[in-house]
Amino acid sequence: MTKGAFENPLVILYLGHYQTAMRKTFILAFTLLFLTSIPVFAQTWEVFDLKGTLQQRAIFDRIEILGETVITGKNESGLFLLSPDLRPMLDLQGDEVYQYLQPWIVVKGPKGLGAFHEYGQLALPLEYEEIKTYPNLLLARKGREYWMFERGKNKITALGSAEEAKLTHHGMIILKKGEKFYLPLSSQPDRGYDYLEENEGNFLLAKESTGFGLINREGIFVLEPVIDQLEHTRGNFFYGFDENQYLLIQGDEIRAQVSYNSYHRITKEGNLMLEYIHGKLRRIIEEDGILLDAVGMESVTLIGNDLYNVRFRDNKLGLLGKKGWLVQPISDAEWIGAGSEGLFPAKKNGKTGFLSEAGTWAIQPQFEEVGNFSEKIASFRKGNSWGLINADGRIVNDPKWKELKKFENGTAIAKSEDTSYYLLNSSGNVINPTGFEKICRLKEGFLLVESQGKKGILDSNGHILLSLEYDQVEVVSKDLIIVHKNGLAGIINTAGNTLFPIQYQQIQLDWADQKVLAKEMYIPVVIPVEEPGTKRKKGAKSSL
Predict the structure, then answer these.
(1) What average pLDDT does the structure give for the chain?
(2) Helix (H, G, I), strand (E, B) or coil at 444
(3) Which InterPro entries does the UniProt entry name for this protein (predicted)?
(4) Between 457 and which of 29, 32, 42, 465 could a Cys-Cys bridge form, CB atoms 3.0 to 4.6 Å apart?
């Protein structure tokens, strides 16, 4: 136990409690005035290997496995960073771990937030209202005052007062002071900009009195601020207009490049960029150039990420993707959606069917709504009910379900009108005659089911692996499941064999060291204490 555990002026007590086949309670010392007894709660964590062999015990109220090499523990002495064998290595000086974003442990204490590096270095004392993290950088706030910690320099630098401060996703700090923006990490920290904007790419969009430009992560202009108009499109690409030409610009750490330019009008509406020649739509533009150059286009509609409905003047419609036509533009459909397995939902005269990649109707438009194909089966809606069809358009299951989810591993989840959930096989037949309140897919192909507040596990074919008797179920691996029942936790496998009995308050897995940490229940121990002035009879022994 670390220094500070024996500082109570009334009680000096240490109680170790181990819960195994035999229990022993040791009282190291106590001093208590005016009371005749004191209840003490001891908390034990048992540490096993994955085979169930007990390796050690540790006494903590709480243990948290934050990462492969980061474990914290809290007991009556405080909050600590623990070694792999669960010994206190570093006092974290707070009450709880507020956040862990590798490599920073943000700790909350009575006076505020602080930050430790996972290797044990105290970076920021526990006195701030907000801390934002980046792998080698911290940004802290207290009121309107800001500070930064740079790990390479191992020092805290005051940034002063600001209306706003932002730590970007690529490690830059933007300060807004008054009407100006600043980059305190750049070589010109006192240079004020009219505007600085972060985006998903690695370059800031900057504006000065001379125009718009781009700034790299070092705070250096890679595109001088001379562009009349500039806005971000996607990634490191930007759309601009300068004097009388339209520009597509790609950011670069040394010098930005113009990837496409044109004196013809290029419009940008959301993520859609179109080029017009002599007033007529001619090209669909993507970030680095021309996606489609075709005569006779009448309209283009963006329906999804890199998916376009392109209509021609002869009223033929096609579906264009990033690499070309997904559905050839020969159909008379009014709309074509994203598809799967070579079939694409499409609408005509208010009804929905499926088009092939060639643009012909594989399934005639006859349904009110459809879902995408999965494992050669798709859902369709009639009224408020859903059924199933195969790739030939034949009805596999009549529309009687309130909801149908796509097939995975040979089964689909169906919701009935009474809100019960069932599993269907590829023939549309119900696998489980008794419905569940919930069915959720888990990793390894398992299905979590729930009824009347109790949970169980089915395999991918709908067979029961774990009966519905648990309050909580967590599938850790293909053959390792943590279960909770009546407030206690244990570990069982899919065969139903108990690996760790359901008798622990909490169980955590340390995959890095291949260990299981099991927290035992609190057990109160009442320690009798003699009142002042009383004497023990000669020959009397303590029962402890």
Answers:
(1) 88
(2) helix
(3) WG_beta_rep (IPR032774)
(4) 465
Give the CA distances from residue 333 to residues 249, 299, 313, 319, 351, in Å, rounded to whole numbers and listed in that order: 36, 14, 14, 11, 10
Please report, for the chain, the start and end positions of each structural domain, with discontinuous segments joined by +: 1-43+526-544
Determine the pLDDT at residue 187. Answer: 93
For residue 445, give the 3-state DSSP assignment. Answer: helix
Which runs of E-coded beta strand occur in 60-203? 62-65, 71-75, 78-82, 88-91, 96-101, 104-109, 112-117, 122-128, 130-134, 137-142, 145-150, 155-161, 164-167, 173-177, 180-182, 195-197
**For the segment 453-507, what is each residue's pLDDT rounded down to a tens digit?**
999 999 988 999 999 999 999 998 888 999 999 999 999 998 889 999 999 999 9
**What pLDDT, in 10s, does the model give residues 1-47?**
333 332 333 222 222 333 333 233 322 223 222 233 444 455 899 99
The single-letter DSSP state of residue 343 is B
Cα distances from 431 to residues 54, 222, 323, 420, 459, in angstroms, run 42, 62, 41, 13, 12
Over residues 116-125, the pLDDT tens digits come to 999 999 999 9
Structure tokens given for 367? 């349904």
pLDDT at residue 27 in the model = 27
Question: Which amino acid is it at 14?
Answer: Y
Q: How far is CA 208 from CA 191, 193, 213, in A?
A: 11, 6, 8
First to last CA, the chain: 22
Question: pTM higher than 0.85, yes or no?
Answer: no
In this structure, are strands 15-17 and 25-27 parallel, antiparallel, or unpaired? antiparallel
pLDDT of residue 10: 25
What residue type is 61 in one-letter code? D
Q: What is the pLDDT of residue 310?
A: 98
Q: Is beta strand 488-492 parallel, antiparallel or unpaired with respect to 15-17?
A: unpaired
